[in-house]
Amino acid sequence: FSTAITITEQPVSVSVPAGYSFTLRCRAQGRSPLQYQWFCQHQSDCRLIPGATNQDLPIIAEQTQLYTCRVNDLHRNAVFSDWVKVEVHQCVARGLPPRLWQGEPVIVLNPQEQRVEVGQPLQLQCAAMGVPAPSYQWYHNGNPLEQQKRKKLRITHSRVSDSGTYLCCASNSHGEHWSSAVDVHIGEQSQPLSLCCKIALLVGNNRYQHHPNLMAPVRDVFELRHLLEHLGFQVVSLLD
Q: What's the rounded Cα separation, in Å, for the pair 239 and 177?
């Protein structure tokens, strides 16, 4: 029976720089002694990992792969752990010594400004490292987008109302980090700045070294941005 073995600790997905050393863990309980065997899958190739018969699987990150662990007992009962993804980033963000990194989210790919015609698809992308792998939440003009919780934000048919400022929050159990804020223009033609235009620079800081993180500056920046735009300002808004 499948209930003869119960997995008590599932392995966890991670997102790490190339060359980073870590361990995948799997724990299970059964009515008789248990045996472990790890498997990996790259693209469509799934294979047994020779010698990987312990509860812990040490890994040196080389390429993005999926992993699972099979647990069986002496009575031919067997269960598989969840499949987990080990995402490997070949380019490490500056100022991130792997030996000192504790797994907190670090943005390695920021979204880019977009100009899209009405009805055309809109796509923004963000990526972050983290142990465990970060989850994502996209924001439009300071408001969370409930359907946009992946690395890639996709809107199949863009509308004028989709114009505005976007940013992404990557978070895990160690904390959160925000991407750069970018402007998206839907159905708008670029206008060259005149020599007499009014320009406003807004800077909102919500992360401090010796002070609890703040959330209000994010919304404040967006609200002030719209107010200044109504007054005829060209606005540049920055976070952290």
A: 11
